[in-house]
Automatic annotation (TrEMBL):
UniProt name for this protein: Diacylglycerol O-acyltransferase
Keywords tagged on the record: Acyltransferase, Glycerol metabolism, Lipid biosynthesis, Lipid metabolism, Transferase
GO molecular function per UniProt: diacylglycerol O-acyltransferase activity
The protein's annotated pathway: Lipid metabolism; Glycerolipid metabolism; triacylglycerol biosynthesis
Reactions catalysed according to its record: an acyl-CoA + a 1,2-diacyl-sn-glycerol = a triacyl-sn-glycerol + CoA
Keyword ATP-binding applies: no
Amino acid sequence: MPDRLSALDASFLYVEDHATPMHVGGVAIFERPRSGFGYAQLVDLIGGRLAYLPRYRQRVLEVPGHLARPVWVDDVDFDLNYHVRRSALPQPGSDEQLFDLVARLMSRRLAPERPLWEAYFIEGLAGDRVALVTKTHQSVVDGVGTIDLGQIVLDPAPAEPEPFEDTWTPRREPSRGQLVMDAISEGVQRPGEVVENVRSAANDAVAAAGKFAETLGGVASTLRTLVSPAPPGPLNVRVSGGRVFAVVRTRLEDFRKIRAAHGGTVNDVVLAAITGALREWLLSREVPLTPDTTIRALVPLAVRDAETPEYSTPGLVGNQVAAYLVDLPVGEPNPVLRLQHIGHAMAEHLDSGRSVAARGLLKVGGFAPATLHSLGARAAGSLSGRIFNVMVTNSPGPQVPMYAGEARLVEMFPVMPLMRTQALAIGVTSYHGGVYFGLNGDRKAAFDVDLVAGMIEESLEELKGAHW
């Protein structure tokens, strides 16, 4: 039987265009050990673990006449060195140079004729640091059969990668005739689906994707609030093909202190800090605010099946992500009241009993945030952009050092994709005492994303000093 793309995975391919590439990224910054950590060692590390990710050596093959959804096939010309690339920053190798490069890399679509992922080994950072930038298409990581590359590259202890010898043998690619016969055979059982697939090829991809998104495959997307159009504002514009990227570095202890003083959860405090920053950003653009003004955030959170009390095996196989809609009270001037409003809204979602506490996620093998951010993007991509203004994903990571080979991970910043009419997406990851924000913005509509980043820091300081 053909390994056919799910309806949701196919929809991510159909709606993709030059302005909205549908991949999720990550920026991992490492300290280079005294023994060194170079491109060849990274290739050995990734190559030695691709056996756990068979999808990463497969490409998408279209069915003639679009009689059925595309299929996954082994890439007979797979070239690891094509996917794992090498780059270097000019002097002085600043963070600003790195993040400018990240923005340009993220704005480029992945080549559809090859496996849908890329990794960039970037040298030349000041302080003898190196960076690993990854891009993975949303159709690849489903959390059921495939996890994110970033989850298997990192280990809790340093170890020199063993030299990689590629002994993988690809399966023969199906012929055009075989693809057609498989499609006809399936079409006899589901004739309506053939019509839908042909419509998607007739410049009606968006309409078809909307129908495909009703089937969420391995990702359960559950809306806990009344679905209504999101409030208008500068965050909801038609995005361009350019990107800007900025980061925020904070300490987990600050969020815990605010939580202890005012209640709620660490995630509530994260959302409150973002809310305060968006409030100041709107004011800087002279957007009129009233006490009732809100920005609707789509907040994907990990959940578990009712019959699965704990994670018992490594990886995220069989787990889910739920997409919650939360109205952020940007019109409220008091930071504590903003936090309380968010806490009440999130409590209604968490009362379902299906959310997974941070301590539960830490039992997941490897660096789970990489996969959880990918699943969050899938949940967001399956929904209409008309019902939310901004996506915010927050995934707790391990509070112990992680390593790629012998190189210690210092910081990890998610890079979430932009939807067709969302100019800003925010990813948050906690790791080893830090909380790291990655802000991906449209180069035209959110050109001042670095201003938002600074405002998140100011908003957090405001919460730290706030009193009833």
